[in-house]
Automatic annotation (TrEMBL):
It comes from Sphingomonas gellani. The chain crosses the membrane at residues 45-64, 76-95, 107-128, 135-158, 217-239, 301-326. The keyword Transmembrane helix applies. It is a multi-pass membrane protein. This is Inorganic phosphate transporter, PiT family. GO terms for molecular function: phosphate transmembrane transporter activity. InterPro entries: Phos_transporter (IPR001204).
């Protein structure tokens, strides 16, 4: 058992991660709506933050359940593991944010948790079904986003045959407000729940949940508020990469990318799969760009992002394991 001040401090660190998650992933929610000039950046941020916050009223807590007890056995987790997981995720997020790389906050957290869990208990403490589901999401989420975005491009082209280019632009400038809202809703429903799972399993490890794992309502509200505040704080370095470096978008294309991403996130939320919103929207944007012609996608930028995806889990895991090891050593020496 840890002291109450230390428990509060760890919860504070978890909420800081959630805030940084919103800051880091703000671009995912607003890049297309900003790059198409449907909303000014500060208006887009507020729009996304609002829908990030209200996501708890729409989705169940399936993702929180997966993260809380489906990655590392809840019986193994203690304050040291949680601290290692959070520091692994935060340090990796800060590094990629400074470099302007849209890596995955989600997989940074899971990588940190996995690394710290392995450092404490070895492979016997790992819940492999949850790991396989999460790793599969690395591949499935962007491909699903790409597929739905492509299908939507074809549908939009077919239904807009009788419209002038200006008419198409006018229609989808309005519809993109809806697609951006849906994407932000899906983002808030998936990403905030990862922090909920971390806080809930920390409380569970301290015997504060009555012997049965669940997510208290105050944890739900705190995490949704933290990610919304993070989104409001921006993430402008990554907006440029997501919104214009991969491909140039029109309002209709932005609508297709956001809606394709939103459908993917909604499916993951219902299935309790902690996927990456960054992977999802990048796949959708690539799908929209390649629907025009393959040369419309700046594949060198997209490939750099893919490299960052595969670095995130092991890099955050190594940091998480190192932090856990240093924490355990400090406890023994103290």
């Amino acid at each position: 058992m840890i002291s109450f001040p230390l428990l509060v401090a760890l919860i504070g660190v978890a909420l800081l991660f959630d805030f940084l998650n919103g800051l880091h992933d703000a671009a995912n929610s607003i890049a297309t709506v900003v790059s198409t000039r449907v909303l000014k950046p500060h208006h887009a941020v507020l729009w996304a933050a609002f829908f990030n916050f209200i996501a708890f009223a729409v989705f169940g807590l399936h993702v929180a359940q997966t993260v809380g007890k489906g990655i590392v056995d809840a019986q193994v987790i203690d304050a040291g593991v949680i601290f290692g997981a959070l520091m692994g995720a935060i340090i990796w997020n800060v590094v990629t944010w400074v470099l302007g790389i849209p890596s995955s906050s989600s997989h940074a957290l899971i990588g940190g948790l996995l690394g710290a869990g392995l450092a404490k208990a070895g492979i016997s403490g790992i819940v492999w079904s949850g790991i396989f589901k999460t790793v599969a999401g690395i591949f499935v989420a962007p491909m699903t986003g790409l597929f739905f975005a492509l299908m939507l491009v074809l549908f939009v082209a077919w239904t807009s045959l009788k419209l002038t280019p200006m008419g198409v632009d006018k229609r989808f400038r309005k519809l993109q407000l809806i697609s951006a809202a849906l994407y932000s809703l899906g983002h808030g429903g998936n990403d905030a729940q990862k922090t909920m799972g971390i806080i809930a399993v920390l409380l569970y490890s301290q015997g504060m949940l009555g012997g049965e794992f669940h997510v208290p309502f105050w944890v739900v509200i705190s995490c949704q508020a933290a990610i919304a505040l993070g989104t409001m704080s921006g993430g402008w370095r990554i907006v440029h990469t997501m919104g214009s470096k991969i491909t140039r978008l029109t309002p209709a294309q932005g609508f297709c990318a956001e809606t394709g991403g939103a459908i993917t996130l909604f499916m993951a939320n219902i299935g309790g799969i902690p996927i990456s919103s960054t992977h999802t929207i990048t796949g959708a944007i690539v799908g929209v760009g390649s629907a025009r012609r393959l040369s419309a996608v700046r594949w060198n930028v997209a490939s750099n992002i893919v490299v960052a995806w595969f670095l995130t889990l092991p890099a955050a895991g190594v940091i998480g394991a190192a932090v856990y090891g240093l924490t355990a050593l400090a406890e023994r020496l103290g």
